Amino acid sequence: MEALEIMKQHRTYRNFDETYQLSEDQLQKILQASRQAPSWMNGQMYSIIVVKDREIREKLVEMNPGNPHVLHSSVFLVFVADLKRTQKVADHYEMDYRIGEGLDPLITAVTDTALALENAVIATEALGLGSVVVGTIRKDVAEVSELLRLPDYVLPVAGLSIGKPNVEMRVKPRLPDQTVIHYDTYKDYDYSSIEEYDDTMEKFAEARETKLWSKKFADYFSNTPNKKVDEFLKQNKFFQS
């Protein structure tokens, strides 16, 4: 498939054929494509944990029972922001490692990680397979980190379930252009554009959605953010305490 067509036709899949096994060749193609993603200064400040072990995947589902595909997919990848590698470099040159003094190193590493993740999604679809990005691994970030034996300076960002879909999905509509695309400077827009999208998504009628798009995020951001992530970042030396 052409790259542009793959991206235009992106769909998230949560139901996979449990009898389908990803070949080692397919897995390596996905990993190679992922690793060719752009990164700041070619720093490649991420790592990819390939989780094949059923027991580990069962424990991940126990933490996140709403994501059974973590177990039922062919393979589960965990993308982590990795500043341990550059800490090793700093130690080698006997230099200070001052990433805890500001947010920019963490933003850089998370950006690198997200770019690698997206390349993996595109490669998966180019192979005729499907995937779903799993952000809820941050819900129990310390427990996930312990389960995967991650060292300090490493943050789980998102997982990726990959497999052969057994339920067809439709391409989900996106927000109106004027709410997302800006030329030269940020341009404000009327709230009616968001109401228009609410109406579009209601007509799309995805079964798993029980609220208006706008109300879902109003509710979500009215709650206190996940403080486990803040504490994890402090304990693992991303921030100074």
From TrEMBL:
InterPro entries: Flavin_OxRdtase_Frp (IPR016446), Nitroreductase (IPR029479), Nitroreductase-like (IPR000415). Residues 8-164 form the Nitroreductase domain. It comes from the Bacteria. It holds the Pfam family Nitroreductase. Transmembrane segments: none annotated. Keywords: Flavoprotein, FMN, NADP, Oxidoreductase. The keyword Oxidoreductase applies. One of its GO terms (molecular function) is oxidoreductase activity. The keyword Signal does not apply. Belongs to the flavin oxidoreductase frp family. PANTHER family: OXYGEN-INSENSITIVE NADPH NITROREDUCTASE. This is Nitroreductase domain-containing protein. It comes from Enterococcus malodoratus ATCC 43197.
